[in-house]
Each structure stands twice: as structure tokens, then as C-alpha cells.
Design brief:
- The complex is a heterodimer of chains A (338) and B (236).
- With 338 residues, chain A is α/β, with parallel strands linked by helices.
- Chain A folds into two domains: 225 residues, Spore Coat Polysaccharide Biosynthesis Protein SpsA, Chain A (Alpha-Beta Complex); 99 residues, no CATH class.
- Chain A is 46% helix and 17% strand.
- In chain A, strand 1, helix 1 and strand 2 form a beta-alpha-beta unit.
- In chain A, helix 1 runs parallel beside helix 2, helix 11 packs across helix 13 and helix 12 runs antiparallel to helix 13.
- The longest helix of chain A is centred in the last third of the chain and has 31 residues.
- Chain A starts with 17 loop residues before the first strand and ends with a helix.
- By secondary structure, chain B is of the alpha/beta class.
- Chain B has one domain: Alpha-Beta Complex (Spore Coat Polysaccharide Biosynthesis Protein SpsA, Chain A).
- Chain B is built from seven helices and nine strands.
- The chains are: A alpha/beta (338), B alpha/beta (236).
- Chains A and B meet through strand 3, helix 3 and helix 7 of A and helix 6 and helix 7 of B.
């Protein structure tokens, strides 16, 4: 189709190579850290732009964004709160770069983050290649038992344990907040589904793009650092929401690979076992989490037995939360009132 | 300022369509005097209920924009504030005309379209409704299923260029025309229309329309998709 447009009028008018889209909601302080890190990028300033989508924040997000005007090639747009997928679409269409990098507002970028994404896109110029960067935890939060577990052991947040540098991956690695792709691929073949307010918007789009041959190149040098600590209650809530989205995803694409990825196939049978015990599972894991944090606060190392119990508790609780989210969304969407 | 709007459209006879509902909804406007002129296209007899608003019955196939130009030839446009061009296969929300034109006027969009609902057939993801905003200034307005021109755009856009008689490619040339004349284009997200009755290009020749678009664009300044699918400004 692009061959039919031989006279693009505005092509070459100083558009940046890369647009970094940051969607944010009521995280003004964290956003400031992210924007601060983007001020120190090795990629020349004329080669990138930052597009901030304020998804209806009621805190000082606007003020923070204004304070970076002049320090960054920055564009900011406001929308009424509509969720992550809608905000990402807004950002995509407000971008001018050939490559679009979707960043999280609770990460900070290493100095070479943008440069590394551009470098990999130049190595893989075809439209279907996306790039996955590497996110690690900041030292302060990596020391927390829960954050260590969800990243390094249980893989409930993101997990790079099995990935090799430069590896070509499938759509299930088109992870939001740390992936970039060609803007033209999305303009032509699909955008985020706004039904997803939190979770799955990235993999669901990746699944659709996989029909166009999407491949994800892992660049371990494209580093961002997660700086937001998530506590036990927050993580339980997060996984419930993830479960909600997993169910929606599996309804949109009821095929075996998606049923498998979303863990919806055996959700009913798992819930039968969990239901009635749910509060106990959560309470018990929460108590273990408290004890572990208390010990660390007093400078007491966690012994192998405590650690083993803690991880079993976390695993059971987080799995239960996700299944609860799946079941609740299933009941909601299958209710005769919907 | 005239408070009349002109609606032009083509509906298919003998094929399922929403023309009766569309015509009725458009006529409900409280803010505007609506003047509708439609062409009935197809061998089957037109719906008698639509007779009053049907300018003529076109039995032989003819391209949409050629028919629209024939309709326009007999009309004094000076009487109208807006022109709406409407297809017969969309679902309009209640109060469409007033709500849509209110936002079009508020944001000074000389060339505009309503976004398509999420469940619509969508050729260009750019025109799918963006949740969280009311409207956006863009460099792209699609040729269908519904678009509007403000009177300030009549001279630049009418009669329609018949170089691509089905209209394919207009949407990439229009932004250059608008840019040249300082006219704003945009998409209204808050008043989206559903386009899900039948897939596009069901009743005409894809290859012929596509070839016409290629020739059309080769001879005219136009935007690439990358440049066209861009939000200049968004409004909540």
C-alpha cells in the first residue's frame, strides 16, 4: 500500500526517530523520576521525543510535566481516565517517530535506553520486528522479599531468567512498559484494545500482530529500572486485575494457546479447591510477608525454612488472586444482566 | 449564519441497509434544519417510505462521488452551514446531528468525521474511537461512512474530484488541501458511529477502486499514512 503514496508531502520534516510514550495516572512523583532519567539520554535530543499521556490524573502530574518543558522534547496530552490501552493508543497517534517505545511511569531509564532501542531497530529494520528491553529492580526494592520473589522466583511480574541476549522471541514477550516497535506496524495492522484497562493489552495486541509475523528481539542492554515498591496487598490486587484481563483476553481469542497463556482453562477447577480457603491463604501469606519484612528490618537474615515457607505462601496467594480475578470477570460477563 | 445543513447520501436498493433509520435520525435535529437528498442505487425498487427524500433512482451501477456531484449540481450551497455525506450502513447514536455538530463547531473542524465504534469494521485503526477524549484535530478524515464539510471548506472540496470516483485516496489528498487553506480537520470521538452491517467493499470492485486510487495519488500532493495518522491536538 505504501508504494501507492509516492509523494509524501510531510516526510522528512524533522520527525524524530523514536517516540517514547509514557502513560501515567496519579504518579506525579514517580513520573518526575522517569522524565528526569530521560533528560540524560545518550541518544541525540533531535532524534527522540517524549509523549506523555495523562490518563485523567488528579494529582500534580500536570505541574510535573510542565516543569520538564524546555528540558526535553516533550509533548503532553490529557484524557479523561480511560485506562492503559486507550492511553497508549492516544500516545501512539500523537507520536511522530518511526519507532515507538512504550515506557512505564514507575521505571527510570538508563542513559542508553533509547539509543539501544534505536540500535536494535536499525539491525532489524523490517516492520515486524519489535524490541524488548531489560527491566531490573532498583537495589532498594530488589532487597524486598516480595519483589525478589515475583521477579526472580515466581515470575509473576516479569522474568528474564530464561532469556538470552539477542534472542528472537514470540508475541508473548511483547511486554508493555519495556518494548518498542515500528509505528507503521501499528498504524497499519492494529492498536491496543481499549477494553483492557490494566493488563493483557500488550500481549493481546502482540497476538494479533503475530498474524503479521511479529517477532520480538531481546536487547538486554536496553535497560530500565523499576523504582516502585509494591506491597503484598497491592500485589494481590494487581493479580486480581490481571486475572480479570486474562479472562477477557481468552474470550476475545478462545484458542488453545491463549487459553493456556491466560491460565483460564483450569480456573474453574482451581477455584473449586481455593474457594472457602481463599481468605486463609491470603491471610497466611500476608502474615509470612510481615514476619519476613520485620526480620529484615531488624537485620535478621531469612533462613532457608522461612524463605521456603514464604515462597510457598506467596505462590499460593498470588495464584489464588489471579484465579479469583478470572472467575469474578467470568461471572460478571456471563451474568444475565450484562 | 445559516442553520441549515445539507445531507447527501446514496442508499442501496434490494440490499440490507439502515437507510430508513438513518434518514429518520438525521431529521430529528433540534438545532438544525436538515435538508436530505439521497440517491437510490440498484435494480430493485426503492423503499416507498424514503421516496420523499430520494432525488432519483439510479438503476445502473455508478460511483458514489459521481452521484454526489450530480446531486450537488442542482443545489445552492450558500444556504447551508454544513454538508454531511452519509452512507446507508451505519448506526447513528440518538441525537447524532446536534451532538456531533456541536463538537465540530466548538473545535472549528472544517472537515470532520465521527470516530467508528470499537465494534465497527475498521480499515484504518486511526479512526477507531479513542476513549477519554471528545475530539481530536488530525491530518486525516476518512471518505466514509460519514464525513462533514463546513461551508468554509465548500470551495476547496466541492465538487468532488472525480479522479478516483469511489473516493479512494481522497483522504490522503484532503489534508494537503486543508493545510493549504488553513482549514482544520478532525475526528469526533465522543459521538461515534457503528459501521458493522457489512464489510467495506462488498458491492463494488476492490481492484478497480484500488487502481484508481494509485493513479489518483500519483498525480496529486498527498500525505503518507505515517504523516496522516497523527493527532495535532486532542480535546476532552
Amino acid at each position: 500500500m505504501s508504494d501507492l503514496y509516492p509523494q509524501p508531502l510531510l516526510a522528512g520534516t524533522a520527525a524524530p526517530l523514536l517516540s517514547a510514550v509514557v502513560c501515567t495516572y496519579n504518579r506525579a512523583e514517580l513520573l518526575a523520576k522517569m522524565l528526569e532519567s530521560l533528560c540524560r539520554q545518550s541518544l541525540p535530543r533531535e532524534q527522540f521525543e517524549i509523549v506523555v499521556i495523562n490518563d485523567g490524573s488528579t494529582d500534580d502530574t500536570e505541574g510535573i510535566v510542565r516543569s520538564f518543558e524546555g528540558k526535553l522534547p516533550l509533548r503532553s496530552l490529557f484524557q479523561k481516565n480511560a485506562g492503559l490501552a486507550a492511553a497508549k493508543n492516544h500516545g501512539l497517534f500523537a507520536s511522530r517517530g518511526d519507532f515507538v517505545l512504550f515506557l512505564d511511569d514507575d521505571d527510570v531509564a538508563n542513559e542508553t535506553l533509547l539509543e539501544e532501542h534505536v540500535k536494535t531497530h536499525r539491525e532489524y529494520p523490517a516492520d515486524q520486528y519489535a524490541v524488548l528491553g531489560h527491566t531490573r529492580l532498583s537495589p532498594e526494592i530488589a532487597a524486598k522479599p516480595l519483589m525478589h520473589f515475583v521477579v526472580e522466583v515466581g515470575c509473576f511480574l516479569f522474568s528474564y531468567v530464561s532469556l538470552k541476549p539477542g534472542e528472537l522471541l514470540d508475541y508473548t514477550y511483547f511486554w508493555g512498559g519495556r518494548s518498542s516497535c515500528k509505528r507503521s506496524l501499528l498504524l497499519e495492522h492494529g492498536i491496543f484494545n481499549p477494553v483492557f484497562r490494566f493488563g493483557c493489552e500488550d500481549i493481546e495486541l502482540g497476538y494479533r500482530l503475530s498474524k503479521q509475523g511479529l517477532r520480538v528481539v531481546y536487547n538486554e542492554q536496553a535497560v530500565s529500572v523499576m523504582v516502585r515498591d509494591i506491597d503484598f496487598v497491592g500485589f494481590c490486587r494487581r493479580l486480581e486485575r490481571q486475572g480479570n484481563s486474562n479472562y477477557i483476553f481468552s474470550r476475545l481469542h478462545p484458542v488453545p494457546e491463549i487459553v493456556h497463556w491466560t491460565e483460564t482453562g483450569d480456573a474453574d477447577s482451581i477455584w473449586q479447591k481455593v474457594d472457602g480457603q481463599y481468605e486463609k491463604i491470603i491471610k497466611s501469606a500476608g502474615r509470612l510477608d510481615e514476619i519476613a519484612n520485620l526480620k529484615l528490618a531488624y537485620g535478621i537474615e531469612l533462613d532457608a525454612t522461612t524463605l521456603g515457607l514464604l515462597h510457598r505462601g506467596y505462590r499460593a496467594a498470588f495464584k489464588a488472586c489471579k484465579v479469583k480475578g478470572i472467575i469474578e470477570k467470568k461471572r460478571e460477563l456471563n451474568s444475565p444482566c450484562v | 449564519m445559516p442553520n441549515d445543513i445539507l445531507v447527501l447520501g446514496v442508499y442501496l436498493t434490494g440490499k440490507e441497509n439502515y437507510a430508513p433509520r438513518i434518514l429518520a435520525e438525521l431529521q430529528k435535529s433540534r438545532d438544525w434544519a436538515v435538508d436530505q437528498r439521497w440517491v437510490a442505487l440498484g435494480k430493485a425498487a426503492p423503499d416507498p417510505d424514503l421516496q420523499a427524500l430520494t432525488a432519483w433512482h439510479q438503476k445502473k451501477p455508478a460511483p458514489k462521488f459521481v452521484l454526489l456531484n450530480r446531486l450537488l449540481a442542482d443545489i445552492n450551497l450558500a444556504a447551508y452551514e454544513y454538508l454531511l455525506v452519509v452512507d446507508d450502513d451505519i448506526m447513528l447514536p440518538e441525537g447524532f446531528v446536534d451532538d456531533y455538530l456541536s463538537l465540530v463547531s466548538q473545535y472549528n473542524l472544517a472537515v470532520a468525521q465521527p470516530a467508528r465504534t470499537h465494534d465497527s469494521y475498521i480499515d484504518h485503526p486511526f479512526v477507531e474511537r479513542l476513549d477519554g477524549i471528545a475530539a481530536r484535530r488530525t491530518r486525516f478524515v476518512e471518505i466514509g461512512p460519514l464525513f462533514s464539510l463546513h461551508r468554509s471548506a465548500f470551495k476547496a472540496f466541492l465538487p468532488f474530484d472525480e479522479g478516483s470516483p469511489m473516493g479512494w485516496g481522497y483522504d490522503f489528498v484532503w489534508p494537503c488541501v486543508a493545510l493549504d487553506r488553513g482549514l482544520h480537520m478532525g475526528v469526533v470521538d465522543a459521538v461515534a458511529v457503528a459501521h458493522n452491517l457489512r464489510p467495506p467493499v462488498m458491492y463494488y470492485d476492490y481492484n478497480a477502486a484500488n487502481a484508481a486510487m494509485g493513479r489518483f495519488l500519483a498525480q496529486r500532493p498527498h500525505l503518507s499514512k505515517k504523516d496522516a495518522f497523527f493527532i495535532v491536538e486532542s480535546y476532552v
